[in-house]
Structures are given as structure tokens and as C-alpha cells.
UniProtKB/TrEMBL annotation:
This is Phosphate transport system permease protein. GO terms for biological process: phosphate ion transport. It is found in: Cell membrane. Belongs to the binding-protein-dependent transport system permease family. CysTW subfamily.
Length: 312
């Protein structure tokens, strides 16, 4: 009778150098081994699709945007004036519009999202949590065009009445985007707060701290890396939003004069112009897509770096 493998405990590394999964599979029948291997290959292929898709999208966008370097020039591309019909392709005003809209949305949305997460995780009763949590989840599932309608019909007239203008501009976009990023920030912050062991809270209570002192002196600092992750991903959501922003900013490609004056953003300008653009104009739009891609990749990289710091 054949002797079993030298490794008897599949949860520990053995002297033969096999990894844990391979050793587990070595202890089952051939049919089960082949089935497990097949599933591993299937799931690996699924994961590989995501990687290949990202590479293909980036390569396609870069190829379409390449003439920016030779036909437009980097200096002009990052200039202030966007007037394609006159041969000006500067995106600085559009980038400024994206920055203003995103920062304002974060100022309004981050406290709202974190406050909601703290309430649902640390304070709310099960009954209240059962009502509020589905409402927050539903916010994430509402199509962005609906947010655009809400901003244009409800928020814009309110801003117009307060400011005296038409209501199109960064201020209206702030309110719309702040609501849109709340589900992202809330959900990820709740995950970060729930990852904190209950023993830390109990230790704080045992030392005489109140519930509120435990929340802001113990729980929130312990979950700070996860909360920053949530904010960064919410920022990515705000930068990439197109339809809702397109409907409320006024679409004027100029440096923002005030929070109530019409502006335009990178995403909204691409959506507006792509349907009829050609030649250098089309190339400039793809180059704007590369800029957005690089910003998104930088945010994801920053989140990964923070996650590694948090695990240490």
C-alpha cells in the first residue's frame, strides 16, 4: 500500500515545498482534484479578463490620443482656452472645473457619509438600521440621469433664487455630487468601523469613557486608514461622474469665476463633443480621457498604499 504524502497537516507548510492548496488537493481523489483545478482555472480566467480589459482600454485610449504630442503639443493642450472651432484645445479651464466641482462635493459629502456610517454602525438600533441602510443602498442604485433631473428641476431653481443667477454652476453640482458619493463613503466607512474588534470598545468603556468618547477617540482613529480609503474612492466617483454634472454645470469651458457661474468639466465636455468631433478635436477628447484615466489610477494606487500602511 502506497504511503501518504509526508505532509499530514494541510494547514502548514511541509518540507517538500508544496503550497497549502496543492497539498490539500493531493489528499483527495483524482476526480475531485481535476474539478478543483478546473475551477481554479475558471476563476483565474475571470480575474484575467478584468486585467486585460483595463490594459486594452488604456492602450486604445493612448493610441487615439497620441497625436496630441505631435499635432497639438503638450503646452497648448494644457493651455487655458478650449475653442475647437478656432483650433484651441487647452483643457486647463475644464480641469479647473472638475477640481472645483470635486472638492466642493467632498466638503459636503464626506461629513454626511462618515456621519451616516458612524450612526448606523455605533449608535442606531437594529430597527432604525433596517430602515436607513436600505435607503443608503438605494442611493447607490439610482441612475445618474435621475440625479441630474433632480438637480436641474429641484436644486437649480433653489440656487438661482438664492444667488440671483440661472442656477447653473459648481454650487448646484456640489449638492448633486455630494448626494451621489454618500453611498460609497458610507458603505466603505461602515466596513472600516466594523473591522475594529469589539474588545477595543469594551476596553474603552471599562476605563470610564462614554460612548461618544469611545467613538471619536478610539474607534474613528483606529479606522482612519479605511475611512481615508472611502474618501478617496468617493473622490474618484465625483471626478468621473458625467451625466448629472453635464445637466447642472452650464457647460461653459471657462475658468470658474464664482461657484454660481456656468462652468464645464472634463467628463461633461467629452460627452458633449464626442458625437460630432473629428480630427484634432477628437484626438484632444481622447487625451482628456487619458488624463482622467491617470487620475483614477493614481487614486486607486493611493488607496492601495494606504491599505498596506493600515495592515502594518
Amino acid at each position: 500500500m502506497d504511503e501518504p504524502d509526508a505532509v499530514t497537516d494541510p494547514t502548514e507548510d511541509g518540507p517538500n515545498g508544496l503550497d497549502r492548496d496543492r497539498r490539500r488537493l493531493a489528499l483527495v481523489s483524482h476526480g475531485t482534484y481535476m474539478k478543483e483545478r478546473g475551477l481554479q482555472c475558471l476563476f483565474f480566467a475571470c480575474a484575467l479578463v478584468a486585467v486585460i480589459t483595463v490594459v486594452l482600454i488604456f492602450a486604445f485610449t493612448m493610441i487615439e490620443a497620441a497625436p496630441v504630442f505631435s499635432d497639438i503639443g503638450i503646452g497648448e493642450f494644457f493651455g487655458l482656452r478650449w475653442a475647437p472651432t478656432e483650433g484651441s484645445f487647452g483643457i486647463a479651464a475644464l480641469a479647473a472645473g472638475s477640481g472645483v466641482v470635486t472638492l466642493g462635493a467632498l466638503v459636503l459629502g464626506v461629513p454626511l457619509g462618515i456621519g451616516t456610517a458612524v450612526y448606523l454602525t455605533e449608535i442606531a438600533t437594529e430597527r432604525v438600521r433596517g430602515i436607513v441602510s436600505p435607503a443608503v443602498d438605494l442611493l447607490a442604485g439610482i441612475p445618474s440621469i435621475i440625479y441630474g433631473f433632480f438637480g436641474m428641476v429641484i436644486i437649480r431653481p433653489f440656487v438661482a433664487a438664492v444667488s440671483g443667477g440661472l442656477g447653473f454652476g459648481a454650487l448646484t453640482a456640489w449638492f448633486v455630487l455630494a448626494i451621489m458619493i454618500v453611498p460609497t463613503i458610507t458603505t466603505l466607512t461602515m466596513d472600516a468601523l466594523r473591522s475594529i474588534p469589539m474588545g477595543i470598545r469594551e476596553a474603552s468603556f471599562a476605563m470610564g469613557a462614554t460612548k461618544w468618547q469611545t467613538i471619536y477617540k478610539v474607534v474613528l482613529p483606529a479606522a482612519r486608514f479605511g475611512i481615508v480609503d472611502a474618501i478617496v474612492l468617493g473622490m474618484g466617483r465625483a471626478i468621473g461622474e458625467t451625466m448629472a454634472v453635464l445637466m447642472v454645470v452650464g457647460n461653459a469651458p471657462v475658468i470658474p469665476g464664482s461657484v454660481t457661474s456656468p462652468i464645464s468639466t472634463l467628463t461633461s465636455q467629452i460627452a458633449l463633443d464626442m458625437s460630432y468631433a473629428s480630427g484634432l478635436h477628437r484626438t484632444a477628447l481622447f487625451a482628456m480621457g487619458v488624463v482622467l484615466f491617470v487620475i483614477s489610477a493614481s487614486l486607486v494606487g493611493f488607496v492601495r498604499l494606504l491599505s498596506k500602511m493600515g495592515r502594518r
